[in-house]
Amino acid sequence: MILVNTDYITGKEFEMLGLVRGSTIQSKNIGRDLTQSFKSIVGGELKSYTDMMNNARALATKRMAEEAESMGADAVVNIRYASSSVMQGAAEVMAYGTAVKFK
């Protein structure tokens, strides 16, 4: 499965199959939240939150690719990511793009 954030793949012609998406909702861990609260006092990167969001993006991407595969797609083009807070301490990460089949 080829995954790109452009609307083309050099040297490939394809037909569009449709929109595909994958998402996950991640919540903060109380232990992680306490340690990150102390970090926010002194400043700097909140590494455990960065790791959590990276894992969430990877899972959303995997789910999007699985949906594309179930449609018989060879690739997903024009991939985008979005995130939003769904409640206090939880965020949704969504990956979406256009599933395509090579001609």
UniProtKB/TrEMBL annotation:
Q: Recite the lineage of the species.
A: Bacteria, Bacillati, Bacillota, Clostridia, Eubacteriales
Please provide an example of a Pfam family that matches this protein in its UniProt record: YbjQ_1
The protein's matches in InterPro entries, at most eight in alphabetical order, are given as: UPF0145_dom_sf, UPF0145_YbjQ-like
Q: Which family does it belong to?
A: Belongs to the UPF0145 family.
Name of the featured protein: UPF0145 protein CAFE_04530
